[in-house]
């Protein structure tokens, strides 16, 4: 071991000692007897250091625990509306002072961490009358949550479960660089406090293999692939109709109104139309005086544009320029093959981007500038309520995923949601994507903007009657209809199986948290 490495290790150990000492003092101060109460069986506290409403996997965990009869606490920050079906008790953390957003990162980080430590400790120690049997934490972020959960678990006797979504230090490295001292400290911190737990959950096999080999994790280990909840599905034309009756008034952009087919509510929307049953007197169009008994169920319009969806957090690990360049190439190609026609071999497309994030303003300003001269492409940013998001996915024709992963060890949940809604996907390639996207079966994999533009052209040619797109949809439909009691994916097999979150959770987690029960319902 070099002298430099020894010095770094010494600094890290001193940091750990000081950190733990501060936390331990705070815990002891609230009362030894209170802290030593025995954990309450069939109870769980789930901690996510982020917006609860934007943490679907942790909300799904909470729902699954509650259905199993656990008293469930979901702890995190207030923000987006949580799932309407969530029955867990929500415990919101206090937000750090807003002034910290205007302070340089190096100065703001220690203050923010100290504030978070106080808020999390207070919530874990005072909001639950008895210690929970299980204490689950989402990682990342790692600092300070892993250390706090590690310590509270030991003091209160709760079994800690770490749900490894990604690696916190790899995300920090995107901002500061791999060689930065904070990144090195973050990596050691994450390894030290994340090494031992009652159980470790991983979103990919690749992540499990990497962390077991690199950090020697102690505890039970299981891969829990993300899966959609059971209510995610492909939308019927009447559901598409209802969705765009609601969304229609919010589509106020003048260039979009003139681009999409004209609606005539409540009988037609931008994507659906209704017809009338002929009587002895033909009625060519539906009017306000048309008898309701003559109006048929909504159908998809033949003149509709192709609806494409991409969900993004607008962060550096998702390169939006790839999509932007692909849209430019598609516009040029559509002009060429359609020879100036508004509708031809390649359809007009409406690219809908959902999500919030720091780079949204920058990229959407560039989009607005470009589409002033576009004839075949429009791109809009929408924020949807939780109940409308799966309906949009279930109404769309193609999903685009730009997720590249800071660690190359996690998988994009947005693709899971799309598959759950029967939506084929074009996804940016990275190391372990094959655990989810089977190229040519449920989607296509691209490496750059040129490939993505080519895939969009291939899939959308002759839309809405596209053979290539129908083939991918059929594969998703068959996998959904043939759900097995214990769905798995076989890497070496040409076939792949699919299941809901509930299917997967009951197969992996139920035996883990009810290990003393020999038979399960």
Automatic annotation (TrEMBL):
GO terms for molecular function: chitobiosyldiphosphodolichol beta-mannosyltransferase activity. It is an enzyme of class 2 (transferase). It holds the Pfam family Glyco_trans_1_4. Keywords: Endoplasmic reticulum, Glycosyltransferase, Membrane, Transferase, Transmembrane, Transmembrane helix. The chain crosses the membrane at residues 12-32. It is found in: Endoplasmic reticulum membrane. It is a single-pass membrane protein. Pathway: Protein modification; protein glycosylation. InterPro entries: ALG1-like (IPR026051). Its EC number is 2.4.1.142. GO terms for cellular component: endoplasmic reticulum membrane. PANTHER family: BETA1,4 MANNOSYLTRANSFERASE (PTHR13036), CHITOBIOSYLDIPHOSPHODOLICHOL BETA-MANNOSYLTRANSFERASE (PTHR13036:SF0). Participates in the formation of the lipid-linked precursor oligosaccharide for N-glycosylation. Involved in assembling the dolichol-pyrophosphate-GlcNAc(2)-Man(5) intermediate on the cytoplasmic surface of the ER. This is Chitobiosyldiphosphodolichol beta-mannosyltransferase. It comes from Hydnomerulius pinastri MD-312. The lineage of its organism: Eukaryota, Fungi, Dikarya, Basidiomycota, Agaricomycotina.
